[in-house]
Amino acid sequence: MTISLVLLAAMAVMYACGVYFLLERSMTKVLLGFLLVGNATNLLIITMAGQAGIAPIVQDGVTAEEMTDPLPEALILTAIVITFAVSAFLMALIYRSWRLGTQDRVEDDADDVAMREGLPMQAEENEAAQSDTEFEERSS
């Protein structure tokens, strides 16, 4: 079994670019990254499937070694459907984000910034204040 170096190089470049795009803040770039990683995975499955053979139909005089394994094809079709569904969901999120805020960037949450800087989070402060108020109401 020989693996085409061109397919291997294309797959590596697609994975690298896809991961780079997935780490961006723009939802459009995240969508592009997800599509690149999905297509790179399809190339990986094709590459690992081996040499092409004849159709996997049992006939007289045809051995199992001459037939192509149908499992990689089924896995690729499943991966295409999953990639399509997640892409449609991401496009709906991008559209909704654009309609609400005319931008497709994900902003930092106040609690995330507080956690990164080592400050108490707003949700914890609100819970502490609420429990203090409930305790004072019960004691009086």
From TrEMBL:
The chain crosses the membrane at residues 6-23, 30-54, 74-95. The keyword S-adenosyl-L-methionine does not apply. Pfam families: Oxidored_q2 (PF00420). It comes from the Bacteria. Its main location: membrane. Keywords: Cell membrane, Membrane, Transmembrane, Transmembrane helix. Residues 111-140 are annotated as: Disordered. InterPro entries: CPA3_antiporter_subunitC (IPR050601), NUOK/Mnh_C1-like (IPR039428). It is found in: Cell membrane. It is a multi-pass membrane protein. Belongs to the CPA3 antiporters (TC 2.A.63) subunit C family. This is Multicomponent Na+:H+ antiporter subunit C. The lineage of its organism: Bacteria, Bacillati, Actinomycetota, Actinomycetes, Micrococcales.
